[in-house]
Amino acid sequence: TTVMYMMTTLLWNKHTSRFMLEGQLIETTWTIAPAIILVFIAMPSLRLLYLMDEIHNPAMTLKAVGHQWYWSYEYSDFTKLEFDSYMIPQDENQASTFRLLDTDNRIVLPMNSPIRLV
């Protein structure tokens, strides 16, 4: 019965009101208030995200550049140590290695120390 009343009211109502033709103040309030609320919600999480991003004095920096068929690596903390890493052809793989995952020059990184990868 309530649904039927609402439907008939909507059909027979002219949808006009003398007092609500324009509501600039309420529309502005409805626009600005949620924006302010979202800013207050986002500020603590953005602060935490920014604080988590800091890395304190990495022991090593590794720059990796992907080319079409190989990878280039550069240890910039040392005297410009750089090398290319190509995939080993399928006919040269041994039975104990993973297929299409082994390379001729592997990356060597230290354990339990902060490393920056660029």
Query: In percent, how much strand structure appears in the residues?
Result: 15-25%
Strand line-up in the sheet with most strands: 3-2-1-4
Helix content: 25-40%
Based on Cα principal axes, name the global outline: elongated
Oligomeric composition of the shown chains: single chain
Stretches with pLDDT under 50, minimum 5 residues: none
| Count of separate DSSP helical elements | 2
Structural class determined from secondary elements:
alpha+beta
Number of strands: 4
Describe the largest sheet. 4 strands, mixed
Order of helices and strands: HHEEEE
Radius of gyration: 32 Å
Mean pLDDT over the residues: 82
Could you describe the 3D structure shown?
The chain is of the alpha+beta class. The chain has helices at residues 2-12, 24-52, and strands at 60-66, 70-75, 81-86, 115-117. The protein has a domain at 60-117. The chain has 2 helices and 4 strands. The chain has a 4-stranded mixed beta sheet, with no helix packed on it. The termini are far apart. The chain crosses the membrane at residues 30-50. GO terms for molecular function: copper ion binding; cytochrome-c oxidase activity. This is Cytochrome c oxidase subunit 2. One of its GO terms (biological process) is ATP synthesis coupled electron transport.
